[in-house]
Amino acid sequence: MSRRISQTIAPTSEDVAVLRLAFVSKGANDPVIKAMREFLKDSVPAWLPKIGENQELTRERLAEIREAANQRRLVIAALPEGPARTQALEELDRAESAAIDMDTALAGANAFGGTE
Q1: Distance between CA 111 and CA 60 in Å, rounded?
Q2: What does the H/E/C string look like for the chain?
Q3: pLDDT band at 3 (very low <50, low <70, confident <90, very high)
Q4: For the whole model, what pTM was predicted?
Q5: Do 44 and 65 form a contact (C-beta atoms < 8 A)?
Q6: d(Cα 67, Cα 83) in Å, to the nearest integer?
Q7: What is the four-CA torsion angle of 37, 39, 42, 43, rounded to 10 degrees?
């Protein structure tokens, strides 16, 4: 016969309440989910949804796009692996790459005192 050693603890009602509270699902009204939604919404520069092809972007605005992409990436990267996470990260990568490309073009144009 083999030996069996067991150590357990019986939680108090207060322990149970504390342990459960941290993991209660509050749905759409969960303050953490609400704060995350607001963070994602607030990370978008106010002018970005209104831009069109006929508007010009400054280096400062391109920097805002890059910063917004970095902020959103921090939150999205924390999500579990899956198609939604992958797609969101790919979209951020493309947006940041486009901003970097435009910024590089602007930097080159400024260095030579002209435009493309």
Answers
A1: 16
A2: CCCCCCCCCCCCHHHHHHHHHCCCCCHHHCHHHHHHHHHHHHCCCCCHHHCCCCCCCCHHHHHHHHHHHHHHHHHHHCCCCCHHHHHHHHHHHHHHHHHHHHHHHHHHHHHCCCCC
A3: confident
A4: 0.74
A5: no
A6: 24
A7: -120
> Could you report the per-residue pLDDT of 63-95, keeping only the tens digit for each?
999 999 999 999 999 999 999 999 999 999 999
Whole-angstrom Cα distance, residue 14 to residue 20?
10
The amino acid present at 3, given as its one-letter code, is R
For residue 113, CA distances in Å to 57, 94, 108, 116 come to 17, 28, 9, 10
CA dist 102 → 23, 96, 98, 106, 107 (Å): 44, 10, 6, 6, 9
Identity of the residue numbered 77: A
